[in-house]
Amino acid sequence: MRAAMTRRQRSVDVVVVGAGPAGLAAARGLAGHGVGVVEVLEREAVAGGVPRHCHHRGFGRWGVTGPQYAARVVEAALGSGARVRTGVTATGWAGPLTLETTGPHGLERIAARAVVLATGARERPRSARLVPGTRPAGVLTTGELQQAVHLYGQRVGTRAVVVGAEPVGYAALSALRRAGVTVAALTTEEPRHQLGLAWAAAARLGHGVPVLTGATVAELLGGGRVSGVRLRHRDGRLTTVDCDTVVFTGDFVPDHELARRGGVALDPGTRGPAVDGAFRTGAEGVFAVGNVLHAVEPALWAAREGALAADAVRGFLDGSGPAAGGPAIEVAAPLRWVAPNRAVPQVPVEGFVLRTSEALTRPVLVVTQDGRRLHRQYVPRRALPHRTLRLAGRWTGKVDAAGGPVRITVSGLGGGIFGAAAK
Amino acid sequence: MTVTTKGPLSPRGQMSSRPYDVAVVGAGVVGAAIARELARHPHLRIALVEASGDVGDGTSKANTAILHTGFDAVPGSLESRLVGEGQRLLAAYAAESGIPVEPVGALLVAWDDAQLDALPGLLEKAGRNGYGAARIIDADETRAREPHLGPGALGALDVPGESIICPWTTTLAYATQAVRSGVDLHLNTRVETVSPEGGDHLLATSRGALRARFLVNAAGLNADVLDRLVLGRGDFTVTPRRGQLIVFDELARDLVRHILLPVPTALGKGVLVAPTVYGNVLLGPTAEDLDDKAATGTTADGLDGLLSKGRRILPALVDEEVTAVYAGLRAATEHDDYRIRCHEERRYVTVGGIRSTGLTASMAIAAYVAGLIAEADPGLDLKEPVEPAPVHMPNLGEAFPRPYQRADLIATDPAYGTIVCHCERVTRGEIRDALISTIPPASLEGLRRRTRARGGRCQGFYCGAAVRALHEGRGE
């Protein structure tokens, strides 16, 4: 309580937690439409989020790089009149719409009329993946690697193994190349790499990197510094690749700590806050956008959500938004998750994003509620694990708000021209 | 204050310097406690010699972090006595030095009839160890006390006196106080041979020679090796017993209220689930007898086994994120009890076979060893110890205010309001303080044990490069 008395109390209209593409787009959409005081809290020293250290191109048109994109979204938010406060961490909740913060200027308690969680996602490190072996130095994630190389100019090592061939693996390759590190191998547990043909060819041809598929990291070797990885191949064979650096890439999870500490219900599939198409969580006045909802989608998708969420927040503040509540949207294996994951008939949804746990060839997605079919969609391509699978949102108007959960299944698994042949 | 990390121990031209009165080999929790205890005699010249680059870098850094009551020790054993005394001494020392301790209590949960039948015997044993507060509780009370337990708990032995403690701060507090009281700490100093010379011990080390009148062996896993170097024979063999552990994220902390200990039966010992003072939940350890004293790796089988046992005890736990997997080696010997032997004629004490209870017993072991030395070598004059200047360690515990929560501290220095490691909420001020402390960390791992930086769920995804930059720039 003594600490409470030394917290500065403040009130604003909307607090946005996280100044990445989603949070900044939300702030811009709010402040730019005259929603009083909109304050973005960013715990890092610089706003812009993960794109700040993604030096590759592909952020928007004309070959915009991550840092260029980050600078633009920050500028746009500031230009709209939003306050962006860096170096300030939302450490917890003092009430349903009241956050506690720590920053170099002290402790605060900030009450708002609405809170937007845009806390993003991170890669799971070696420990969370339960990779056995020693705990040597030189083992990192892409996020740490990119910051070390692009923000701090630190030396990384001389010879690396990159684990996981999701698209982010390619970003790791590019950061390693910038740091002058030889890449001994790119390994993935999946039977096929997930890079896309062009990227895989670029890895092999452009960088001379062998791509090892169907290989699991069985053990990390080395005392003080990592000396190699032992790989288990699909046929049970064990091989050792010598290296002094191991980069674990992909396997993103939402950074949901603040949501959980606030009692915001999570979706069991995404492990991010459960939201409807208006980005409303189960806690009234608390919204969530960006990769905390779905780990991970590209920055432009996150920013689009931020802009859409700004409209929904305005609707909530002026009381014009639709009633909340509605059934959960569930997925059946091999689908892993869907976002948004609550269906409200009055809330239109531009599109859903899904993930599958195994490769599906031209799958048909079927949406049902209480045995009634709401939607059927043919996906005219191969759906890969860790890659975006999209589902149209036009069926949400058919949902019975008082009905049971909405289910998304893959139809005809196991054969048929409209079915999906797994693997 | 002398802490050396490289270069010859006795620079050329200074070979004639006065030999140390006592050299303690091994700066784990036991060696550091002994050095601290001996430093209470300011006239003594003391060396604390450590093979690694940091204190507490072996067995001491990887234990289960429990401050035991000693309720389940072998009654009448030296271990029973020293754990009981040590618990009281360390609890008081922790309170005065800022070492985080949480008196959460323990439940030994019985999952089958054999375990349930074993509880009365354990209760009686606790009594014989001088611990009277334990009692047996039924299934309903067990469930009420631990609502997230898996199905099938039949009852439990309630041991309210068990606590959790920070093992890293404990070792560091002892070593810091020892160094501030005049002990020379020599890191990266591996003892290679020991020979008698003019009544003293001449230690040949990886950093040159060191002479000492009295030698204390607190070499942990290598105590048997050092014993043979000194005596030419040894009376015990250390068999490293590997314990693999899984640390779950702080968001799992609310799932468990007590230390959940296994009930030992003839069929073996299970694993424990315990909160940590950092707000994590610990699951483990395995117990694997090995012959490699460097085998601190985890294995797929070990981790799978822990998860399946953990799922039975606390099903929701295994759905939470894992922040660390690690393995520690316990210095098990063929003997049931601690092996503390004084060889008076050689002016030598061996402190061997100190198992995981050694953290709890450390201060009592130190006092016991000091007593043995006083008796064996009256010339050292250990009659009147003085109280050392107290140390105030940075708080790493969640049960006490941490710098990021303290407006008063941030007002004096904004660095305490600048969070660098977000998962663990470690501020730039704390990292800077650690880097300029009495015993600064030699590595990022050492920095983690002093501050918790990089120790959380992201393991450096967000802060790794920033923490490294502070470490390499020594704070700024």
How much is the average pLDDT of chain A?
Answer: 91
Total of DSSP H or I helical runs spanning 4+ residues of chain B: 12
CATH superfamily of the largest domain in chain B: FAD/NAD(P)-binding domain
Q: Report the mean per-residue pLDDT of chain B as an integer.
A: 95
Class of the largest domain in chain B, according to the CATH hierarchy?
Answer: Alpha Beta
How is the largest sheet of chain A built, in terms of strand order? 4-3-2-8-19
Quaternary structure type: heterodimer
Number of domains of chain B: 3
Low-pLDDT residue intervals, each spanning 5 or more residues of chain A: 414-423
CATH topology grouping of the largest domain in chain B: FAD/NAD(P)-binding domain
The value of Rg of chain A in angstroms is 22 Å
Tell me the span between the first and last alpha carbons of chain B. Answer: 24 Å
Q: Biggest interface pair, residues each?
A: A-B, 46 and 48 residues
Number of helices of chain A: 8
Largest sheet of chain A: 5 strands, parallel
**What overall geometry of chain B do the principal axes of the alpha carbons give?**
globular
**CATH level-3 fold name of the largest domain in chain A:** FAD/NAD(P)-binding domain
Strand content of chain A: 25-35%
Instruction: Give the name of the CATH superfamily of the largest domain in chain A.
Output: FAD/NAD(P)-binding domain
Counting helices, strands and paired strands, the structural category of chain B is alpha/beta
